Amino acid sequence: MVIPRLLVTTALALGFAGVAPAADPAPDFSLPTATGVIKLQSLRGKTVYLDFWASWCGPCRKSFPWMNEMRRRYADRGLVIVTVNVDKDRKLADRFLEEYPADFTVAYDPEGKVASTYKVKGMPSSYLIDRAGYIRYRHIGFREAAKAEIESQIESLLAP
Q1: Which of 147, 143, 146, 119 is nearest to 58 (CA)?
Q2: In the chain, which residue ranges form alpha helices assigned H by DSSP?
Q3: pLDDT per residue as tens, the chain (160 positions)
Q4: What is the CATH number of domain 47-158?
Q5: What span, in angstroms and rounded, lies between the C-alpha atoms of 155 and 159?
Q6: Is this model's pTM higher than 0.70 or not?
Q7: Do 71 and 79 contact (CB within 8 A), yes or no?
Q8: Where are the domains of the chain?
């Protein structure tokens, strides 16, 4: 649509923080957690690192300690980490979390509906969502070599 693109272009030209024209709106969802329900919409105004994972995912064993560190490092600047487990059996996720504790929100999507909405192609898959609710970066898998790049992307979205 011409008007939204014109508004984004105008905002960028005036120096306002804006959404890159190629950014897609992050689909909203509501999922159960161990303590209630998480709604993506309620996090508007925060930078969200959304991560889809499964108990059988080898790279997830490395991503969880890293996500804990990112939360510790950037929560006070507005980073929220939300992970979505896609195991059909919640007990599998619980066993994983006993071994790899999460200092962030863990939501459950046993039917894979939210994962399907996000077109998850591999485990883990992560999405960096800006304060306005747009997906700015996507990552499939988790590699040690990519940690610095992802952290840099997080920092760029947290910048004032």
Answers
A1: 143
A2: 2-13, 60-74, 90-99, 113-117, 147-158
A3: 333 333 333 333 333 333 344 589 999 999 999 999 999 999 999 999 999 999 999 999 999 999 999 999 999 999 999 999 999 999 999 999 999 999 999 999 999 999 999 999 999 999 999 999 999 999 999 999 999 999 999 999 999 8
A4: 3.40.30.10
A5: 6
A6: yes
A7: yes
A8: 47-158
